[in-house]
């Protein structure tokens, strides 16, 4: 090989080391800095996302307590919960990105700088030593040429190894993204389509007119929220008058059951039929049934009691029952009119709720 070609081979090897020291490692440092900013930006996004979807879930909870949009509230809550889970999954992926990619790149930059600088220095010293031996006649040109070729091959391997490391780390990150998309994408799309179908169904249906009882329930709920302190702290709550969940246990005294606490209650009679309702905290009964009232006074127009024929307990309008003395006394004409009106209203309630 001519002297010109040997010099080109030598300069090529020096160029590889120079590229690693002056281009690759600084580029890796810049990637680490940008990656840290990337991770911090996502952490801020995740925190804001958590606040947003918590607020969305709260709006869904409010819809559950309306008469018109309970099913929509359930959809909103499911959407919020699904998005929170997705954000948590992505946040976990970014934690792995920080630990498995950024931290290892940062370590490699710190360790590699001294390694590459030392490798280049040893190569240059060996070149000078080989050149001196060649000029002194102690080495032929073939050995020197072989040394230059092997040195270039080693430098190329070091260069390739570093770019392979960079590619592998980001391949793994891309695979993590793909795995997350496969894990959540299909089910999320299916659920989103179901949510949209449910929303569209509510668009086509006419909202049901609330019954008188349900309107009174909603008013009672609002009054109860405003009057929670007025209800007193010594009594355990009877359960909210309407409730989307199962009915809480009725009022119990500190010493035992409800009957123990209120001496069995007072006996009254149903003067109006109270139709069955989907609300589990309400008591239904038929006109003429015996009702044992278990609270001393009405609360927002509602009483809590037990139907003797079924032993069920629950809330009912106070105007639907009377004491035995009231029932036996001759009713005035205005009372007869009121009773007829209540009976008509009850029939309407039964028709609507059915």
UniProtKB/TrEMBL annotation:
Q: What name does the UniProt record give this protein?
A: Brain-specific angiogenesis inhibitor 1-associated protein 2-like protein 2 isoform X2
What start-end ranges are recorded for coiled-coil regions in this protein?
A: none
Cited PROSITE patterns: IMD, SH3
Q: Any idea where the IMD domain is?
A: 1-219
Lineage here is: Eukaryota, Metazoa, Chordata, Craniata, Vertebrata
Gene for this protein?
baiap2l2a
Membrane-traversing stretches: none
Q: Which PANTHER family match?
A: BRAIN-SPECIFIC ANGIOGENESIS INHIBITOR 1-ASSOCIATED PROTEIN 2, BRAIN-SPECIFIC ANGIOGENESIS INHIBITOR 1-ASSOCIATED PROTEIN 2-LIKE PROTEIN 2
A family per Pfam: SH3_9
- What GO biological process term is on the record, naming one? actin crosslink formation
């Amino acid at each position: 090989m001519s002297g010109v070609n040997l010099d080109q081979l030598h300069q090529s090897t020096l160029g590889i080391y120079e590229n690693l020291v002056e281009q690759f490692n600084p580029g890796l440092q810049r990637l680490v800095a940008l990656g840290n900013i990337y991770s911090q930006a996502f952490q801020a996004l995740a925190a804001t996302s958590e606040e947003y979807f918590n607020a969305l879930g709260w709006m869904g909870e409010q819809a559950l307590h309306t008469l018109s949009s309970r099913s929509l509230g359930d959809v909103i809550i499911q959407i919020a919960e699904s998005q929170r889970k997705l954000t948590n999954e992505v946040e976990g992926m970014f934690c792995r990105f920080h630990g498995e990619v950024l931290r290892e790149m940062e370590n490699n930059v710190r360790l590699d700088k001294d390694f590459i600088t030392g490798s280049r220095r040893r190569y240059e010293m060996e070149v000078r030593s080989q050149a001196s031996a060649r000029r002194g006649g102690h080495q032929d040109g073939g050995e020197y040429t072989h040394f230059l070729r092997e040195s270039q091959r080693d430098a190329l391997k070091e260069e390739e190894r570093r770019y392979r490391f960079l590619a592998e780390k980001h391949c793994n990150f891309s695979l993590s993204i793909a795995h997350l998309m496969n894990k959540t994408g299909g089910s999320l799309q299916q659920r989103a389509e179901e949510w949209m179908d449910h929303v569209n169904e509510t668009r086509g249906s006419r909202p049901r007119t609330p019954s008188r009882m349900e309107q009174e329930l909603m008013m009672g709920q609002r009054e109860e929220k405003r009057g929670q302190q007025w209800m007193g702290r010594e009594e355990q709550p009877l359960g909210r008058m309407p409730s989307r969940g199962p009915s809480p246990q009725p009022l119990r005294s500190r010493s035992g059951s409800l009957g123990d606490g209120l001496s069995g209650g007072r006996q009254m009679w149903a003067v109006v039929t109270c139709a069955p309702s989907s609300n589990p905290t309400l008591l239904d009964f038929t006109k003429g049934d015996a009702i044992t009232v278990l609270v001393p006074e009405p609360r927002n127009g509602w009483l809590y009691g037990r139907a003797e024929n079924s032993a069920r307990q629950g809330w009912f309008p106070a105007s639907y029952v009377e004491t035995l003395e009231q029932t036996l006394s001759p009713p005035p004409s205005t009372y007869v009119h009121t009773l007829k009106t209540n009976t008509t209203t009850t029939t309407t309630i039964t028709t609507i709720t059915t």
